[in-house]
Amino acid sequence: MNPSDFKHILFDTSGFAARVTLNEPPYNVLSVGLMEEMAEAVESLHGRGDIKCIVLDSSSPKAFSAGISLEDSKPDRVFQTLEAFNRVFEAIADISKPLIVAVDGPAIGAGSELVAFGDVVLATPNARFAQPEVKMGVFPPFAAVMLPAVIGPKKTYELILTGQALTAEEAYALGFVNQVVPEGDLPQAVNDIVARIGEFSAPVLEMTKSAIANSVGMPLNQAMKKAQDIYLNQLMSLEDVREGLRARVEQRKPVWKNR
Fold it and tell me: How far apart are CA 31 and CA 35, in angstroms?
């Protein structure tokens, strides 16, 4: 699908940072259609050596995302909804490009789970993060699995079993958010992170993210073997590795070929 054909998101690949913007104001409800477009956008970045990272944000000043709609949460539709959300998760995991998430406003339910996918999360004091599913007689399947690794099991139990929201500052203290910045400074803070990432080789970034992601939850010896396998059998075959070493010896800035 051409980016101009998307109805629920904005998708920009004109720079080295691809931007996926939730564009269903005012609350960016995660409909099946929106999630399918998100997944398709991320999947289209496979093989794009010119794209070094992905930025996920919202066009709405009122919310990052209010999560799944009540209609799509009903028993007769929830299978399709979970399938669409799972496709987004798999697309982000498979692409291995660093994901930067910018949050200015509430991220509720699946909206908060979407934030949890981020590698670097920047938030303003307007941000709130909540898993209120228990109030509707259900539980958040992705948060139940992902949050213990991010904020620890004890806090996960508390958040999911009470449905209570985290402020941006509380989320920062727990490691769910990397930085809390004033609302007016959010675009520049995102640009600063993007600029730093842009200094490096795209495939090196992908392999680095893969090595980190694959080690989470693994026994130490298995994690070390996995990381070393990526290092020896994938990383060492890159042209950019040789260029990086040459540039260091020659005391100059590397010229990455992104391959």
Answer: 6
Count of all residues that appear for the chain in the document: 259
| Whole-structure pTM value | 0.94
* Tokens of residue 216, six digits: 């989470």
Segment holding 121, helix H or strand E: strand 120-123
Can you tell me the distance from the alpha carbon of 146 to that of 117, in angstroms, rounded to the nearest whole number? 9
pLDDT surpasses 80 at 3: no
- DSSP-assigned states of every residue in 158-175: HHHHH-PPEEHHHHHHHT
Q: For residues 35 and 154, give the distance between their C-alpha atoms in angstroms, rounded to a whole number.
A: 30
Report the DSSP beta bridge partners of residue 18: 54
114-169 pLDDT per residue, tens: 999 999 999 999 999 999 999 989 999 999 999 999 999 999 999 999 999 999 99
Phi then psi for residue 107, to 5 deg, are -125, 105
For residue 65, give the nearest of 110, 101, 111 by alpha carbon.
111
The two beta strands, 53-58 and 166-167, are unpaired
Beta bridge partners of 22: 9, 58
157 contacts 144 by C-beta, under 8 angstroms: no
- Residue 237, φ and ψ in degrees, nearest 5: -90, -5
pLDDT in tens, 177-208: 999 999 999 999 999 999 999 999 999 999 99
Nearest alpha-carbon partner for 140 in 162, 121, 171, 122: 162
| Phi, psi torsion values for 9, nearest 5 degrees | -135, 165
To 5 degrees, how large is the angle CA 150–CA 155–CA 159? 105
Q: What is the pLDDT of residues 38-75, one digit of tens each?
A: 999 999 999 999 999 999 999 998 999 999 988 888 88
SS3 10: strand
